[in-house]
Amino acid sequence: MKQVGQNYRSGELAVLDVPQPACRPGGVLVRSLYSLISTGTEMMKVSEARLSLLGKARARPDQVRKVLDSMAQQGPVATYKKAMDKLDTYTPLGYSLCGVVVEVGAGAEEFAVGDLVAAAGNEFALHAEVNWVPVNLCVPVPEGVEPQHAAFATVGAIAMHGVRRGEPQLGEMACVIGLGLVGQLVVRLLVAAGVRVVGIDTVEERCRLGEAGGAVSCASPDDEGAAYIEQVIRTATGGLGADHVFLAAGGETNGPVELAARLVRDRARVVDIGKTRLDLPWNAYYEKELDVRFSRSYGPGRYDDRYELDGIDYPAGYVRWTERRNLGCFLDLLSGGSVDVGSLVSATRPIEDAAAVYEDLRNGSLRGVGFLFEYPGEEAAEGTGREPARSSGRAVPALARRPGRAAAPTVRLGFVGAGSYASSMLLPHLAKHPGATLSRVATTRSLSAVNAQRKFAFESITTDADEVLADPAIDAVFVVTRHHSHAAFVSRALEHGKAVFVEKPLALTRGEVDGILDVVERTGNDRIMVGFNRRFAPLLLAMRRRFGTAGAPVTARYLVNAGRMASGSWYLDEQLEGSRFLGEGGHFVDTLGWWIGDDPVEVSATGTPEGGGLQATLRYPDGSLATITYCTDGHPRVPKETFDVSGGGRNARLDNFARATVWAGGARDTRRSYTGQDKGQRAQLEAFLDAVRLGAAMPIGLASLVATTRATIAVGESLVSGRPEAP
Q: Which pLDDT value is given to residue 21?
């Protein structure tokens, strides 16, 4: 199918052939009829992508801070590679469309195949022929509403939520500054609500369009135009001033904020809907005691995964107008004729012309406010409900295909998942390895598969994991998905006779561990490797050799400065993904067990009051003791990992895989890594490939993998029980 994507590093914008997304529970598969270009939000993103690296940094200082924090913990080389990898990917555009339901997922039975719907979301309602959309971002289109008009619903909901934030009342006076697409819709909604409206914009055509939409008068923000609008407002309000100003403008000028203070009455409301510069002139806003409000996207529910992804609605008695109800309300206004968007449609172009349309918008040769992409198959709107054929997608040109491979046998690999970690830490090594063939990759999002194929030359791509698991030509499957899915994918891959490499954790519960062992026993397939890479790190291996045999129990400490997670990170969804430590702690448990040479027999743990940080103590059969201190509230630029061991008159210390020191025999020996951190990913992958190719034992035995997983789970159990737990 076709989808619009943009490379944020180069600025290239293209219509790509991508695999159709799978229909997942909690949503529906929608074949697009029309999608609307957001000439504000999307063009800002398109313009940013064309900036230099320095320009991008200036435009996104929040991302620069993240890069600097990462550099302190991971080193400049790894950070640079990760940042460039993230930039050099196709990202989607679009968030407002109308289409036809072609497949219904479990839990979305309120919809039926053939339903005409409007859909929202910058991760779901994309400029693509087919999209998967969760139920709370999808609404039925009422009878009588044209599909091309219904495609305005998301931007209409943005405007509607902005209007609601202003709390206008019948007969009041409002001024809309910025008459782009959102501003035009705000004008029409205010007029429908019985509010008198004036508008301000630098473009003459937009001013006339605002007046056609019901505004009393519109003018330029220059001195003459502003004076005229001020006079119109004062005449209409008996000298009081506007009751509301809605800021729907963008740009770097502070003019809209300053003009707003000039036009409003005492204690009026100023609502920011667009990305407006807000250097508030203190005296002007203080003297009138102005109420400044922000309007966040489509309304309550936006950026809440429990609402948008899990489908958990807010009770109407507490939240009357959620984003979904705003979408439905806007469509009802279209159906009843209270709001008209037909005059806002400036052009409709086929999706194949997307690159040219964005370029014409950028250079100003295409003028207007409402631009739609049209998709093939409009007859589906008549309710045929024909399910489209699934496409594996035409391969986009790869960055660099591996040069002529030797005829020697190679291990054919399939990937389930190709996110940030896989793309930065696993696939670059495998793509260069002469003994590996990257056969097929499955990702949830269509563009993720395209990006993986482009960068690493996968032979084929899909959005159906079963196509990878069941492919008889694939020797080994890599599972690099979110934590809650690991155990199920591992079991299914084993049942298909594959060797499996799964990123930590192997499982989240003891029941999941037992389920994997049941599959192993039933199938006889125990070819499992978990991504515990630290024991393969060259600096740590050398430190272990220099430390030698202690001849007595040792004490060890692993200090982890894990840092804070972004508030919306999926890692923090403990109900689904388990705790942060459960997701990451296996690395440290495995490293300790490898160093000591045995598995722990007892685990006890205590945690901080907030529940993120903890300290775990592990006891081993020979009397060795180890502690893991896992901190989630430290400074982001303090190195992440410090590992200390003492025993037999010797000490060893690893400083964040950059420096390793051993004190033994009256001497101190320090070695450094001068090429950046190496946490062992490449060596680990080579060992796994050799084991698969030769039919040899896995690099880490299954018993050890299971013991580490159970010990990591026991840490959480001890936190709850308050007593030591057996792994």
A: 95
Instruction: For residue 16, list its beta bridge partners.
Output: 3
Residues forming CATH 3.40.50.720 domain(s) in the chain = 155-294, 411-530
The 3-state DSSP class for residue 137 equals helix
Q: Which of 199, 206, 97, 210 is nearest to 155 (CA)?
A: 97
Cβ atoms 297, 161 nearer than 8 A: yes
Q: Which numeric CATH code is attached to 2-151+325-379?
A: 3.90.180.10
Rounded-to-integer distance, Cα 43 and Cα 15, Å: 16
d(CA 341, CA 356): 24
**Sole residue written with tokens 């400083």:** 655
Per residue in 398-448, pLDDT (tens digit) is 443 333 333 337 999 999 999 989 999 999 999 999 999 999 999 999 999
Q: pLDDT tens for residues 318-343?
A: 999 999 999 999 999 999 999 999 99
Cβ count within 10 A of residue 537: 24
Residue 499 burial class via C-beta count within 10 angstroms: exposed 0-12, middle 13-18, buried 19 and up: buried
For residues 293 and 285, is the Cβ–Cβ distance under 8 A? no
State in words which class domain 411-530 has.
Answer: alpha beta
Kindly state the tokens that stand for 406. 């030797």
- State yes or no: pLDDT of 79 exceeds 90: no
Q: Match domain 534-721 to its CATH number in 3.40.50.2300, 3.40.50.300, 3.90.1260.10, 3.30.360.10.
A: 3.30.360.10
Residue 396 has a pLDDT of: 44
CATH 3.40.50.10330 fits 155-294, yes or no: no
Q: Residues with Cβ < 8 Å from 384, sequence gap 6 or more?
A: 114
382 confidence band (pLDDT: 50, 70, 90): very low
* Bridge pairing between strands 27-37 and 2-7: unpaired
Percent of the chain with pLDDT strictly greater than 70: 90
Q: What is the pLDDT of residue 82?
A: 66
Quote the CA–CA distance of 487 and 530 in Å, as a whole number: 11
CA-based nearest residue to 189, from 219, 153, 242: 153
CA distance 354 to 171: 43
- Which pLDDT value is given to residue 574? 87
